[in-house]
Design goal:
Elements (H helix, E strand, L loop, with lengths): L1 E4 L14 H9 L3 E5 L10 H6 L3 E3 L2 H7 L2 E3 L6 H4 L7 E4 L7 H10 L2 E4 L13 H18 L21 E5 L3 H12 L3 E6 L2 H10 L4 E5 L2 H7 L5 E4 L25 E4 L20 E4 L2 E4 L9 H22 L1 H7 L1 H4 L2 E4 L2 E2 L2 H7 L2
Helix pairs in contact: 6-7, 10-11
């Protein structure tokens, strides 16, 4: 199979979808790999590493899209890439269709095959979402701590406090991968953490593994509202696979937070779990609503591309090899996890959560 890896062009997206090590494995399986010029440079992988691994370098994204049967990316195509996509071409990347009707309709028009990382499901887990969720969860605390600083517009609170001064209160909404890693990071810095989820079995598990400065709470609007007046940092980490995230903090609830409090919406890729959320970029990461700072960067792991690229490709490469060796149709017949990754096939939406979101 001919495989193409274009350079990511979303704002401050520094990751790349394939490492030189992955390139070597694909070429050893008899496939041809084309890499756009400097696609891996910002992740620490220069062209010569890819060439040594057996890849060929092309100068433009158009050349890559024109020649490749399978395109491997990190983020969803943006508008200037729509016209490059060909009918029957396989796109293997994060799409998050439920948060973007324009993208969904654009991909329907291309007649391409869109296989989304975020809906590949194996044994009730999302293996291609996990590594970036781990990174995003940990980074959400780093960013939240930074924007709690007074020069950034925050309350001026040190997350872990000091002897004689109480630590910050952190509320984590969602006890999945993102929420767990956020709670671990916040607790490790010494903050008082409450992690809220609707699943009692999950809360029991978290209660057993978390340190003493982490409390668990059944998630409800009432319980969240009770905590907000004393909360300094809220991490939105709710995920409904393939579907739009629910709004757990409404506009009216913002008044319960003190000025300078910080909301970090890690669910922004799926529409966000705060009503006042809208996507931001690493170039302009925050905005303020009613005195509350909102951090809603849609590609948080892109800020640490070396770590993120290695973590992502560790997970995606085995699937990319199966798709290349077998072709997408045969691979999806044999492997149910890949089959669940199919979102749009030749102009038809085949993922129920996406179809339901837009009434298709």
């Amino acid at each position: 199979m001919i495989i193409g890896v274009p350079k990511e062009i979303k704002n401050n997206e520094n990751r790349v979808a394939l490492t030189p090590a992955g390139t070597q494995i694909l070429t050893a399986n008899g496939h041809i790999v084309y890499i756009e010029n400097n696609a891996g440079a910002n992740s620490g992988f220069p062209n010569d590493k890819y060439i040594a691994a057996g890849a060929k370098i092309l100068n433009t994204a158009k050349e890559v899209f024109d020649i490749a049967e399978m395109i491997i990316k990190v983020k969803e195509p943006i508008e200037q890439e729509y016209s490059l996509i060909r009918p029957n071409q396989l796109l293997f990347t994060y799409f998050h269709f439920a948060a973007d009707e324009k993208l969904t309709r654009a991909m329907i028009k291309t007649d391409a095959v869109c296989l989304a990382y975020e809906t590949v499901e194996y044994s009730h887990t999302l293996p291609l979402l996990v590594p970036m969720s781990e990174v995003a969860g940990r980074m959400s605390i780093q960013q939240g701590a930074k924007y709690l600083e007074k020069p950034q517009g925050g309350k001026g609170i040190l997350l872990g406090g000091v002897p004689g001064v109480k630590p910050a209160n952190v509320l984590v909404l969602g006890g999945g991968i993102v929420g767990t890693h956020a709670a671990v990071m916040a607790a490790g810095l010494g903050a008082h953490v409450t992690i809220a989820d609707i699943s009692l079995p999950r809360l029991r598990y978290l209660s057993e593994i978390m340190p003493a400065n982490v409390d668990t709470l059944v998630s409800s609007q009432y319980n969240i509202s009770e905590l907000l007046p004393t909360t300094d940092l809220v991490i939105g980490a709710v995920l409904i696979p393939g579907a739009k995230a629910p709004h757990l903090i409404t506009r009216d609830m913002l008044k319960l937070l003190k000025p300078g409090s910080v909301l970090v919406d890690v669910a922004i890729d799926q529409g966000g779990c705060f009503e006042t959320s809208h996507p931001t970029t690493h170039a302009n990461p925050i905005y303020e609503v009613d005195g509350v700072i909102h951090y809603c960067v849609a590609n948080i792991p892109g800020a640490v591309p070396y770590t993120s690229t290695l973590a992502l490709t560790n997970a995606t490469l085995p699937y990319a090899v199966k798709l290349a060796n077998l072709g997408w149709e045969r691979a999806c017949e044999l492997y149910d996890d890949l089959h669940k990754g199919l979102n749009i096939v030749n102009g038809k939406v085949v993922c129920k959560a996406v179809a339901d979101t837009f009434g298709f």
